[in-house]
Amino acid sequence: MSAQESLPDVGLFRRAMGRFATGVTVVSTLAGGHDHAMTANAVTSVSLDPMLLLVCVERDARFHDAVIEAGVWGVSVLDAGARATADWLATRGRPLHGQLDRVAHHRGERTGVALLDGALASFECRTTDVHPGGDHIIVVGEVVSVVAHDHAGDALLYYRGRYETLA
Asked: Which residues, including other chains, have CB under 8 Å from residue 110's CB and lie 6 or more apart?
């Protein structure tokens, strides 16, 4: 890129990416004897053989150090009724201790991480790779457990900077 060319505006980039509808998840881990969780829409399947998922985690987030330390993590796919949970776990500076006290959850059988009750699906993963990605890291994990729940429900989506549902 020449000195005269400029990079796209960050605000425009964010707005354009907001046109890409994504599912909303909660990613969780257990480190230092504490549950850590965050709302994430940057979760993607990577491979079927082996089964791999990835999640992008901001380097400045306290979840960053926890997921690196733990080496295991879970993903709970949220339904439309979980907006309050998504908001709570996206709140910066919320207390670490007891952050899941108001969220119904159970422990994953393979990893012991918190998985949300009422999720449309849940995954337990073991970290296999971590890659730098600008101000984030890309955590790749082998899926060691997967559950697709039978209860009906619309997915919670993130679109144009807010939560939406399929209509």
From this structure: 124, 144, 145
Q: Which H or E element spans position 10?
A: helix 10-17
For residue 162, the surrounding DSSP H or E stretch is strand 162-165
Instruction: List phi, psi (to 5°) of 78.
Output: -85, 145
Q: Tens digit of pLDDT for each residue in 50-71?
A: 999 999 999 999 999 999 999 9
Taking a C-beta distance cutoff of 8 angstroms, is the pair 45, 52 a contact?
A: yes
**Is residue 36 within 8 Å of 63, Cβ to Cβ?**
yes
pLDDT tens-place string over residues 13-55: 989 989 999 999 999 999 999 999 999 999 999 999 999 999 9
**Cβ atoms of residues 9 and 145 within 8 Å:** no
